[in-house]
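REQUEST FORM: STRUCTURE PREDICTION
Request ID: SP-0412
Submitted by: Lab K.M.
Chain count: 1
Length (residues): 93
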Amino acid sequence: MTKKYSELRRLALTVDEPVPGMYFWVVQEEDDEMGIYEPIESAEMPVTSYHAALAAGYMALQAMCGPNGPREGLVESPLFISPSMESTLGTLQ
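STATUS: Completed
RESULT:
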């Protein structure tokens, strides 16, 4: 069966440098009505390089995403479990 998912969230990763040499990653999400990106999560502490901020932000962005991308949740998720898996699952409970 096919899984139906909600739409992908439109996320963007940026790096800000409010003070020279202090870099913060920021994840932003697009506002559907206006098309403007608003910050939704950011680094609590600065790092000393753009590269380090970008890498840390990428890890934070990955943590927000499942295997099918960043989504609000499943609309429908019918699963097929083979009979052999059912017996395996029964022994785990």
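NOTES: Residues 50-63 form the longest helix (14 residues).
Reviewed by: T.R.
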